[in-house]
Write a structure and sequence with these properties.
By secondary structure, this protein is of the alpha+beta class. The chain folds into two domains: 53-247, Pathogenesis-related Protein p14a (3-Layer(aba) Sandwich); 253-316. 26% of the residues lie in helices and 31% in strands. It contains seven helices and 17 strands. The protein has helices at 53-70, 80-94, 106-112, 144-157, 165-170, 209-219, 237-246; strands at residues 2-4, 6-17, 20-26, 77-78, 117-127, 130-133, 136-138, 177-186, 192-202, 253-256, 262-266, 273-279, 284-286, 289-292, 298-303, 306-309, 313-315. Strands 3-2-5-9-8-4 form a six-stranded mixed β-sheet, with helices on both faces. Strands 12-11-16-15-14 form a five-stranded antiparallel β-sheet, with no helix packed on it. Strands 1-6-7 form a three-stranded mixed β-sheet, with no helix packed on it. A hairpin with a 5-residue loop joins strand 8 (177-186) and strand 9. Helix 1 (53-70) packs across helix 4 (144-157) and helix 1 (53-70) packs across helix 7. The two termini are 44 Å apart. The model is unreliable at 1-5 and 13-46 (pLDDT under 50). InterPro entries: CAP_dom (IPR014044), CAP_sf (IPR035940). Residues 62-190 form the SCP domain. This is SCP domain-containing protein. Keywords: Signal. It comes from Schleiferilactobacillus shenzhenensis LY-73.
Length: 317
């Protein structure tokens, strides 16, 4: 059996500049089904491959960041707040719909999470059947690595999407975080479709407002511009699998969340000695060890025997 893919991009931004708020919205809010000639089909077979969502999420993030590195852009962080607060629900909703649809409440939801700049990519990829994209026949997706590579390739190629909104979201230099979610749904013909949502978030300082606004305007225009060149050399399946294994253990990070900063101590608990150094509010530190003192207070080691009080930070673990 042969089936077509579906894609749907969206990009929005809210900039705050000198007390004024303006909004930019658009970026390919039209789902396009490219025409194709009728093809012979065979009876659907029993599904053999069931994606491991956590593994696919890790693989797709690894490949997206490889794409961004090829274009000299910083890596995106997987943001579990976005994933659980929005991406999971929008992908589950789309798995029940006949066509991919964005929810207009997405920008407001991510604004409440602290992101002024938002974007979203949606896609649906058939499993265990030959894929048709723009008249091209692509091999069936039969494992997690295939699914991750095919999803990123679909977004980057953006066949049938005049504004290349998916690619522009992947390569948006002002996005810093992404929520990733997948859902699996059985189709009427007995085949299975893997639905994906990528929800992007970012912020911009006043000093970068004009350049950010220019990129978001570009994201709403048809075609590509030499001002924002893009390249992509996809990973081989073995290379992607190996790279994902290296990044499978997330780093523990503590972010100072106290206006006056947090004090750095040698040792922790009753024997702690203040180093006279304050780690500034908003700074991020790798956590090597976690310990509790004799009164139950939690401490994080952020350097060799250098500790901070966990009360004044937030963490990703």
């Amino acid at each position: 059996m042969m089936k077509q893919i579906q894609k749907h991009p969206k990009i929005t931004a809210t900039f705050t500049v000198v007390g004024a708020i303006s909004a930019l919205a658009g970026g390919g809010n039209v789902w396009v089904t490219p025409p194709f000639a009728a093809q012979p089909v065979v009876a659907a077979t029993v599904k053999q491959y069931t994606p491991n969502a956590a593994n696919v999420n890790r693989l797709i993030l690894t490949e997206i960041n490889r794409l961004r590195a090829q274009n000299h852009l910083s890596a995106l962080r997987l943001n579990n707040t976005i994933t659980t607060g929005w991406s999971n629900s929008i992908v589950a909703k789309n798995a029940r719909l006949p066509e991919l649809q964005h929810d207009p409440n997405q920008p407001a939801a991510l604004n409440r999470m602290g992101f002024l700049l938002t974007g979203e990519n949606l896609a649906a990829t058939p499993l265990d059947v030959t894929i048709i994209e723009g008249g091209r026949h692509k091999p069936a997706v039969t494992n997690d690595v295939d699914l991750a590579l095919e999803t990123v390739a679909q977004y980057y190629d953006d066949y049938g999407v005049p504004d290349y909104g998916h690619r522009k979201n992947l390569l948006n230099p002002y996005f810093t975080d992404v929520g990733i979610a997948f859902a699996l749904a059985k189709q009427a013909d007995g085949t299975y479709m893997a639905y994906n949502a990528l929800d992007f978030g970012g912020n911009v300082s006043q000093s970068r407002y004009n350049t950010a606004a220019a990129y978001f305007n570009y994201s709403q225009q048809n075609g590509l511009s030499s001002r924002y060149p893009s390249v992509y050399q996809p990973s081989s399946p073995s290379t992607l699998a190996a790279a994902a294994i290296k990044t499978s253990t997330p780093k523990r990070i503590a972010t100072v969340h106290y206006r006056g900063g947090v004090g750095l101590f040698t040792g922790y608990g009753p024997t702690a000695r203040f180093t006279r150094r304050m780690l500034p509010n908003g700074s991020r530190w790798l956590v090597d060890r976690v310990a509790k003192d004799n009164v139950g207070r939690t401490w994080y080691e952020v350097g060799r025997n250098q500790w901070i009080d966990a009360k004044y930070v937030t963490s990703n673990f």
